[in-house]
Amino acid sequence: MRAQLLKLSDNVQEAEARSRQILGLIAGSGEISTFMAQLSAEAQRSGVVLDGYEPITTSAPEAEAAPAKPKPAKGEPPPPPPDPLLAPGLQKTSLLLTARGTGPQLLDFLRRLEQLSLLVVQSDLSLKHETKDAAKPGEAAANTTQLRLNLSLYSSAEQPAKAP
After folding, report:
1. Whose CA is closest to 121, among 89, 157, 85, 82?
2. Per-residue pLDDT, 119
3. In this predicted structure, what is the pLDDT of residue 64?
4. Which pLDDT score is estimated for 5?
5. pLDDT in the model for residue 160
6. Angle between helical axes of 32-46 and 103-114 (0-180°, round to 10)
7. Distances (CA, A) of 97 to 39, 126, 151
8. H/E element holding 143?
9. Strands 142-156 and 119-132: what pairing?
10. How far apart are CA 92 and CA 95, in angstroms?
11. Which residues of the chain, if any, have pLDDT below 50?
12. Residue-wise over 21-42: b if at least 16 C-beta within 10 A, else e?
């Protein structure tokens, strides 16, 4: 029995190590500053101007037993389902990104975002066409498009420092 218990313990440790390794491969570095630098570089390559972003971080729920959730009262909408990509050990940072450029530039920028080697989910895309009058007579009016997009970056959750 002790030998079996020891073998099971070793198997659990190996499975946890594999899980951490897979998480590391999927999540990458997870540094928001690194991700923002990549966004900036891709925007410059595609000729897009980034106007702003608003980051929001969400951590995965603990794997411990959760208390029973009360049922919503009659007439209330049910709570949203949990994020299926937000596994224990991951955190989600959402960015509301605003960018400006021409249609082809924005398309190139979106394609470059899809090619990043990070777990990034794009959602809630909205486009707004802007036309500015010519500054001088004889010049063509400037046509740009404003892109608003939610980006969700999944990365390794920072481990809290353990007290000695």
Report:
1. 85
2. 73
3. 44
4. 92
5. 46
6. 140
7. 10, 11, 7
8. strand 142-156
9. antiparallel
10. 10
11. 63-66, 140, 160-164
12. eebeeebbebeeeebbebbeeb
Enter the tokens of residue 52: 């702003």
pLDDT reported for residue 8: 94
- Report field, pTM of the whole predicted structure over 0.70: no
CB 108 within 8 Å of CB 46? yes
Contacts of 71 (CB under 8 A, 6+ apart): none
Q: Sheet with 90-101: list strands edge to edge.
A: 49-59, 90-101, 142-156, 119-132
Spatial separation of the C-alpha atoms in residues 122 and 59, rounded to whole Å:
18
Please write the tens of the pLDDT for every residue from 22-35.
776 666 655 677 77
Residues 104 and 111: beta-carbon distance below 8 Å? no
Q: Which residues pair with 147 in a beta bridge?
A: 99, 127
Other Cβ atoms within 10 Å of 98 Cβ, number: 17
